[in-house]
Queue: 2 jobs
Job 1
Amino acid sequence: MTTVIQHINWVGFRTLVAREITRFLSVYRQTVFPGVISSSLYIIIFGFTLQRRISSINDVPYSIYIIPGLVMMNVITNAYNNTASSLLQMKLLGQMQDMLITPLSNLELAISFIIGGAARGFINGVMVLLVGMFLTGMPLEHPFYVLLFLLMVSWSFSSVGLIIGIMAESWDNIATMVNFFITPLIFLGGVFYSINMLPEFWRTLSMANPIYYVINGLRYSVLGGGAADSSIGLSLFAAGVMTILFTVAGTYLFHRGYRIRQ
Amino acid sequence: MPAAIEVRNLTKTYEDVPALRGIDLTIQPGEFYGLLGPNGAGKTTTIGIITGLVKLQGGTVSVFGKDIVRDYRFTRSQIGVSPQDFTSDWFFTIEKLLYFQAGYYGITQKEAAPTIERLLEQFGLTAKRDSKIRQLSGGMKRRFQIAKSLVNDPDILILDEPTAGVDVELRRMLWNYLRGLHREGKTILLTTHYIEEAEQLCEKVSIIDEGKIITEGTPNELIRSLGKGGVEVHVSGWEEAMEKRLTNLTFAYEPSEDGGRVIFTVDNPEKELTKIVDSLSSNGCTIHEVRVTKSSLEDVFIELTGKAINE
């Protein structure tokens, strides 16, 4: 006797979310530890050594100042990589058809993949944050905003992963997006510096980078108002727009079956 | 009762190349149905549309009377699919993958457990339950693929080349298993390159070529209506004049040292046999041996498509 689903396939949805989360946790050495280790190295090498030359930015010790940016860097790259690589892998190994033949809607499939990637981004962000607090004694001024930024940014870049995963036909496509777009935008978004340290032209250009706002949003949330270059309102607005825009774009493509259903 | 699968005027084009040119199919509940066709004929595309893997472009498809687009949750829950190509997975054991697959169909782990235990047992995979797909042999992968298509206990089972690349022993095992499912009342749609498979298993077959169904019927009907039979008679006393006397029959004479062989081409050898023997005897031939030859479904296939199924 078959099970017939009327409205929402909750069991299917939960199953796919669980599969996506279990998948990256089963290889935690590749998906959770590297970000924590590299961030610890950034804090120790960059933070502690450069602190002798740049003692503080916006009255925050340099080793602490860089931590919110490192957290965002990990959230963004992990959330993106998880969804993009999971989707491409499923296409290449033929696993996608196992899902497409089932009574899961395209929207349920898309949201499940986004949640999987967002979970990896969020876990990585929290881990780096905890390591940062442990190494530097960093405070946590606005925990609610911290949570909000971690959730919104991991969700929105998991959605970017969905978009790229749908369109990608090779691993090269996925790496191209990271190497040529995401990583430069993260570094130019002020992970290691304040944009006020830049010449006028570069400062103005940096303000067109959405990642600049989410890094500074988290910097405000973790370190308090004086540490950030942008206002919390603008940072929340940027994070909100990215979340909505990328989610709508990703789910729309998936819903249309673009490069998923022939 | 509505048809298990009803396909009407199905069309599909890939980048201006027509893949399906108006397919019509009706598969009744409980029927064992075969879709035969050479590579690129449109079998997998047809199955893909029925199951939701391929987008519907033109025509309609219903499953137990429900539209596959509007009521996709219902129609997909009724169907189990075993695709032609093996899927792979780097992370999970085959048992876990069966639970995932059941979950996608909305079946909880608790509900799925008895079915999964039974399937692992029936397909000889119990000892391999903790293995990953890449650790299985080709035959085991095929068994796993078919077991996975049954986790939702579907009323309709669609098998795309289920015995491709498996050894004879496993093929027989799978045939027996499918016969058992058919006896239980499941509707089975099968595509195959092995015409013997269709003859052995299917109650009804369609021959598809270049995106169109050319003919449909039971294997026997097709052989009777489209196949050519023959009667081969070993004789002595054949004279050249005989050729003029047997004007109402199509035949060829091959002389040999101990007489000769007359090979008659007829539509229904059993029916024509007495007439042939009478004609030869009354014309002074001595008959030593008579052999009836019949067309196979493969001959019908070649007759209709002009090519062998593996071309």
Note: The longest strand of chain B covers residues 17-27.
Job 2
Amino acid sequence: MAAKWFLGLWMILVILGAFFYAPASLGLGQISRIIFFHIPTAWVAVLAFLMCAIYSLRYLKTRQPSDDTAASVSAELGFLFCIIATISGSIFAKATWGSYWNWDPRETSIFVLLLIYGAYFALRASVDEPERRGSLSAVYALLAFVTVPILVFVVPRIPAVQSLHPSESVVSISGEFTMDSRMLTVLLASLAGLTGVLAWVFNLRMRAARLLSTIPQDKED
Amino acid sequence: MTSSSNWGRESLAVLWKDLLSEFRTRYSLSAVLLFSVTALAVVSFSVSPYSLDPEAKAAFLWIVLFFSAMSGLSRSFVREEEARTALALRVSASADAVYGGKLLFNIVLQSAVAAIVVPLFLLLMDTRPANPALLVAAAALGTLALASSSTIIAAIVSRANAKGALFAVLAFPLSLPGLSSAIGATAEALRGNMPEAATGAAADIRVLIAYSALMIASSLLLFDYVWND
């Protein structure tokens, strides 16, 4: 209970910090404030994808229905954060590069991630029997999980795409932070806060699922 | 646990069974071949062959090959479910052997399609590949990559409800690394023997090999959960 209020307060501080504490970037101006939400949501989307793979692996080993629920809940949350990251990134791209979408390597990767999440839900929707649904979707999630790292090697080689993504604006090659320290503080706080939001909603959904599973099936109607 | 020689023999037996039933009906091969020839014809009379650069040609070729794979490769498992022979197969062969046999069958089927589509494509597009050996390698390894990623997806789809629509949806994101490397290598093969092209093509070929090996290895680990749940 206390954690919920703390998380709410934390996110309020992050939002205030993003607009009032951190300075706007010199080159980009006010639009640069979107990174305080764009980068953390993308990170959380990848984290949820990892959680989905781990729970899928656990489901195949233990066959506990709760592990299957956890995998599907993390995929749902990951999909949500993935959409937020895509939209915020697209707005950012329009403001800085002049086009909403140009198949930059990271745009390609996040598009593939969206496709995988979409395919995962399509698969879940088309299997009725819960046990079979659990194992088929777990296998798919794990296959996707081993495929995605290959994209790191493949996507930069897709022709007619030069990356415009600033890979060095946060951490330079030598490993030193090149960002303004106040911006970095807000970014890391937002990263922690949104990771907390993921954990909070995940717990909420898991508790709801547990309650639903205790209701006897014949009394539902 | 079956020993490795036993596993190989069982896989070949499954392959032989599938080839025999395919030979008797010729369902998959004729459907896939007609599909790919139709798609190729649409491509070739909608654009002039002289107006396309190698990248566009390579992309067209692999779009045709990818969707012909999508139309045919799921049959190997869907047929077992539809004919209600899956249970008999489950009893008579180990899961690994079933996967091995179906993978080999899909490789054979898709290679047959590629062996007809690629020469026909070169003919219709009036293209002389600058590096024929690389083209053959790209076609062969791309076919292997497509077959290795879609065999386990076919097994998943055969146990779900919306079989036809689901297969391409599930297979595309997983096939993308193989597909885009195959397109890259094919474009280099059509373009020519520039030194920087050779290193690019070598990287594509390496990705194709690594990707196929990874997909087959993880499929072997996971196939049992799909097949015997």
Note: Residues 4-227 of chain B form one domain.
